[in-house]
Design brief:
heterotrimer; A alpha/beta (512); B mainly alpha (320); C mainly alpha (359); A: 512 residues; alpha/beta; six-stranded mixed sheet; 18 helices; globular; C: 359 residues; mainly alpha; ABC transporter involved in vitamin B12 uptake, BtuC; 16 helices; 74% helix; disordered C terminus; cell membrane (chain C)
Chain lengths: 512, 320, 359
Amino acid sequence: MGAATPVVELKQITKVFPGIIANDSISFKLHKGEIHALLGENGAGKSTLMNVVFGLYQPEEGSIEVNGEPVIIDSPNRAIELGIGMVHQHFKLVQPFTVTENIILGSEPKKGTRINYKKATEEIRQLSEQYGLQVNPNAKIHDISVGMQQRVEILKTLYRGAEILIFDEPTAVLTPQEISELMEIMKRLVAEGKSIILITHKLKEIMQIADNVTIIRRGKVVDTVKKSETTPQELAEKMVGRNVTFKVDKKPAEPGSVVLEMANIVSNNKEGTAVLQGLNLQVRAGEILGIAGVDGNGQSELIEALTGLRHVDGGTVKLLGQDITNMSPRKITESGVSHIPEDRHKHGLVLDFSVSENMVLETYYKPPFNKGGFLNFDAIDKHATRLVERFDVRTPSIATHARSLSGGNQQKAIIAREIDKNPTLMIAAQPTRGLDVGAIEFVQQQLIAQRDQGKAVLLISFELDEIINVSDRIAVIYEGQIVGEVLPEKTNDQELGLMMAGSTAKRGAAHE
Amino acid sequence: MDVLTIIGQLINTTLVFATALIFTSLGGIFSEKSGVTNLGLEGLMIFGAFAAGVAGFYAQDAGLSGFGAACVGVLAAMVFGILVSLIHAVASITFKADQVISGIVINFLAAGSTLYMVKLLFDGAGETGLISGFDKVNIPYLSTIPLIGDVFFHAYPTTYLAVVAVIVTYFVLYKTPFGLRLRSVGEHPSAADTVGIKVNRLRYIGVMLSGALAGIGGATITLTTTGTFSHNTISGQGYIAIAAMIFGKWNPWGAFGAAVFFGLAQAVRNYVQLFAWTQSIPQEVIYMLPYVLTIIVLVAAVGRSSAPSALGQPYDPSKR
Amino acid sequence: MNNILKAITKDSFVLPIVAIIMGLILGAIVMLIGGYNPIDAYSALLTRVYGDPYDFGEAIREMTPLIMTGMAFAFAARAGLFNIGGEGQFLIGMTAATVVAVQLHGLPAYIHAPLAIIAGAIFGGLWAAIAGFLKAVRGVNEVISCIMLNWIGLYLANFVINHFMLLQGQNRSEDIQPSASIAIMWLSEMMGNARVHWGTAIALAAAVFFYVFMWKTKQGYELRAVGFNQDASKYAGMNVNRNIVKAMFISGMFAGLAGSFEVLGVFQYQSVMASSPGTGFDGIAVALIGLNNPFGIILGSILFGTLTYGSAGMSFSADVPPEIVRIVIGAIIFFIAAQGIVRWVLKPFYAKRKKEKVL
């Protein structure tokens, strides 16, 4: 790309929210036909910046130019008019509507007063062929795969004539194979003259597909480099601001006896289909078993079956030899199982309770917290104070509502509570989701510390790197079954990706 | 009276009761499809019945024919319903108040304020002056068919208007861009927002349509049954309309069917005494019937999965 | 005590006060438009309530059931439930108390009255528990089921009176046995025969119970957790369904007690009612004014009772239609529900407080 006018240029964009400067004087150029990655940690300001470009936020300072002309983008409508389209991380798709309805929403072709569905379907079919984005126009969103949903998101932007596409963390929910497919789609888009901004924190993808990288840290631009002139190591250091080791520091594991045994677990959902289809799993004391898999293959159901939140229709779950199948959640917890849930706001904390009330969420009914039906606030407060200190949970006081804590501190509070129960089995589901590097390190170290103390740890994560780095053993889950077990040091992304997608070639096409 | 005549009259009465319910439940659908819970339908019906009674009276006083005055009444009810619904809209959409409470506030205000205004306008009387309202009309040709002609094709014009309203509502909601956008706003407002749809503006329209339709619903009671408005003109129909909407799974034709069903349950009350075998059933049990049936159907039908996904949640753009 | 002081000085206490003032002002405006004098009207209202012992006693009588139905709504609200079935629970509780009070003979007062009261509480609770059960087991929205149960309750109450206890030639039940009455005769005489009764004392005690139960016991902790976040409560091992039913039961008990007070303390009989008395719905307004807090509810019912009882004075002395009071109350709860409006009005008076966000 030579000295041609950039299609989009951001000049010293500053965006402020109460208490935070999300974007601090950011300048950025995107040229035609370029794939430009925007790299940064969670909370660095990437999404905010793109929301400014897309008209969802207005910057306090700075200006935007499209094709050399200064513009004010005061709404998504304006952005769309200017040819900017966004493929969101959390798809903005209306579940009960069809693919076609979602694509045309807001720009419906008309015949008199009615919507002209024939014309719409035809237009979508043409776009679909031109860019290799295969979709089923009449399918409802809640029936189609995640990969197809993303293609619908992309078609939405193309239908409105987008020339500049912003992809916000597009690979979070895809298998390695689907990621490759997405890469091909992006190359095709660029070949047809589109320009792409790729927001991501995944170095591997940047090295694969991007032409240029702009690194953002704490709202400021750190640097803009050409992909060909840099390395993942360098990018990581710029992203975090210090030396980054990719490996997690841990001694080799010394697994003991079997703590958890899941044999032939079958569980059906409301419609009668089996979400867990004969699942077999074993975790030993003193080891971390990581479960790798694409979201939606039974991970949540596995955890629910383990923690008593879901009915097990077949098979047994044994903890230290004792059958805990279908016991109530409370009894299972009392048997020695701790659980760090994947959605800390929904399942882990009562945000409107104070920190100290949250610390006894599972133990309030036991002495010393419960004295004859009445709560013993002295004991509760002492308990909370101790945990807050030991696990360095930053909070103004234990009476503060959990809602006011940052994501990292909320997670620390949950971990503090779960570890303090001194469990035999610790289940950690997406424990580092949405956390910054410091908090991620803390969480991973805590899990390893638990394992070193002889606990059994079950780790479920969508981040393959985390699974590979932290686990002692890896099991891959696919369509409600464990389809393979490997040792982290003896495997790679490719192999894991194949297993996560069903392994054998003939099953690969079944999804779409 | 022979059985056929009684059944014929029963259907007639059903249609009268059902008409009010049809209009009101259609109104509820527009509001809730856009994502705003509207429990204030009862209050809106009261305001509508009141407006029709007052406007109709003054129109008749001014010399308009019975039919003309009644039409004025309908229009007045529509306008008044829209205005009152704005209270709910402003509170719950702009000020993000709890939508259930906001709807209850409308109901609370309705009884007191309408009675206050009636006393002001009619010299302390507890009800509006009597008006003639609508007369039944005959659909040409069809009403001469023996037996069913008199039953189905000789009814109040408001009943036929109600059926037209159902057809129009269905068309608007499912065939037009407006309808698609309205429904998107109730299912996934953030998705609508990012394609440039004005979420809150559409929600305002949804609530105002509910005000208009529920107002008309209330007006039909004044204009076809009682001829006046007093404190017990509307007693509970608004809530039954909500139930009809839920049974109908927020679909206009479903609500229509449910409204007819409830209309029948209410109509049955008047006729049950006529048969010997029914006379031994206590009166109160007959009165209870529609409500017990509602609960039974609610339990059996489990309609919750058809509710618009974003129903009841104020839209906050900063939480995109 | 400390908590009450803290609650009073928190800024959330300001909201209802301002809403009340705004509601009274709106009422004054409506009166002016109608050609009435608001000053005359409001002073007539106050005179009527606080003017002499009889009226004062009757005003207290009017406020008492509101405390109970207010707490009924608030208790369920704390557990995340909208109990708008207070009407039906009130009537069913009333009917149960009437049955015990009328039909049982030969019991001494210290057994009969408490028995009637307990019957009222339990049946009110059971009626509410139906809605709770339907929600827990079948996911039926409690708003609709409560509305239906309100009507069924009305007709069921009438049925029982009409078919088992009807006073010949009248539209009401027979009188209750004197041994079941909870009227306080000596106090009543002191207050010009105003119908004061033990129910008021029970209501105040119930408010204390509400407070202690909700915030000091493990049961209350569970209910509040479920009310705030059902998912987290489930994950923490709490039985959400059981808590829903429990919360509705206790909530219904409050409403049922209100109904029993009316029969056992005030009227000494139960009428056959053409329509629902409205005490349950009024309780919702009181609960909103009192911010779902038991002590706020006591204050709210004092306000509400003053306005409603005093409205008769307005129509006698200042010739203002008493319905104006419903408009005032409606406006007050509107302003409380749409807090944003009040905050907007208060913006110039407020120094913005910083949120405690921790990084």
